[in-house]
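Re: copper (II) ion structure - here you go.
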Amino acid sequence: MKRRTFISGLMLAAAAPLAPFAAQAAKKPVITVYKTPTCGCCHEWIAHLRQHGFEVVANDVPDTSPYRSRFGVPKELGSCHTGVIDGYALEGHVPAADIRRLLAERPKARGLAVPGMPVGSPGMEVEGTRRDAFDVVLFTDDGRRSVWQRYPAKT
Ligand SMILES: [Cu+2]
């Protein structure tokens, strides 16, 4: 009898802190995106993010460059759209997996960028065309850059 009470007490203690975690897991991380209304590949990138469990709030703007400045994305890392999640900037066609890792590891950085618009990056797939090699770049406010993830060309 005594042992039984002890065990159920333990189970209660274990179950209690799980509740807020479950609530957090059910809440999808939200990415706010700034793009131009005519950008088709931006739209495809957003679809990729949604497929991979992100919630996306998309804003059509006449020009995305003010948002790059606002979120600290260097000009030379620029692409066709700018997103932001939890204070991190996301520039261009950054794969969902790399954003997940960013949120898990939380490096001291301004954000991630896939400069330009590499063919074969998420949202830039062209049917019948191979993927170009591209890097996801981690960048900081003080100008440091490092390769967060390397994607080799794929035939
Ligand atoms: Cu694009």
